[in-house]
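Human: I would love a firmer grasp of how sequence relates to backbone shape in proteins. Take your time, and here it is.
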Amino acid sequence: MAATRALEPGEQVQALVCGEYLADDGVAVLTDRRLVLANSRTFAPEVHSLPLRSIKDVKGWVDSARATLRFSGKDRAFVIGDIKEVESAQAFAAAVRGKI
């Protein structure tokens, strides 16, 4: 829910993946403008975003049939882990790489 509230008018979602972000259930959303990461913390969800032009690197790995993705910007990095659908994580990473 927090990720949808973070979207700007006219911003189009192009891909998403669900996992764990900052110790809670979370989502990474790729839009036509940026990458939005949010968790489902009840009273104070954490929402962060990176404009596509500021993403320098996308890394991913699989451990015990769960994937983790790391998105690096100029001065910070964001990680979404415990992604149960490994193929979805790989497709999401490829979609982000295709935009940067």
User: Anything to note?
Assistant: The first helix runs from residue 2 to 6. Helices lie at 2-6, 86-99.
